[in-house]
Amino acid sequence: MKKFKVSRVSIEFGTSPDLFSPKGLDMGTELLLSCIGKFNYSTALDWGCGWGAIAMWLAKNNPNSKITAIDSDIAAIRQTNDNCKLNELHNVGVMASHGYSDVPESFKFDLIASNPPTHRGREVVDNMIAESLARLNGGGAIVLVVEARIKPWVARQLKAVFGNYKIVKRSPKHVVVMAQK
Question: Domains (ranges, CATH) in the chain?
């Protein structure tokens, strides 16, 4: 088993070679987690959970919250479930879903967090942002970490859909951006 710690939250995990960042927490997700604790949430979504780093961190950071983790990859769902069991996290629900297609419409969130799969193309990320607006509670936020080089188009899409966006934190390679409903 491997381990990562961001802020005061420590997580044990396993990964597999076919999932994103199989050797451990990537720099972009670490940057996202380093600033996401300031958001208030009782419900949150890890969109494109991979092996579950964001979902587990959110669940452990706020044990009274209800976290949902989704991914279209069955191996990711399996690994996230295993990692949640390893960390004894009972406030995470994991489901296979291509985007929001299998997430019940009644599921609404205070926070949607993601290191989106930008390698799958602009359309995937644009659709995720567009569909996220209806999934947020009033005052809720979407928070994304992306490579700095693609921040301009992600920021434009956030502004087009939400009417606002803000840079939360940046590193030389990554930018955490958010929009609020």
Answer: 34-180 (3.40.50.150)
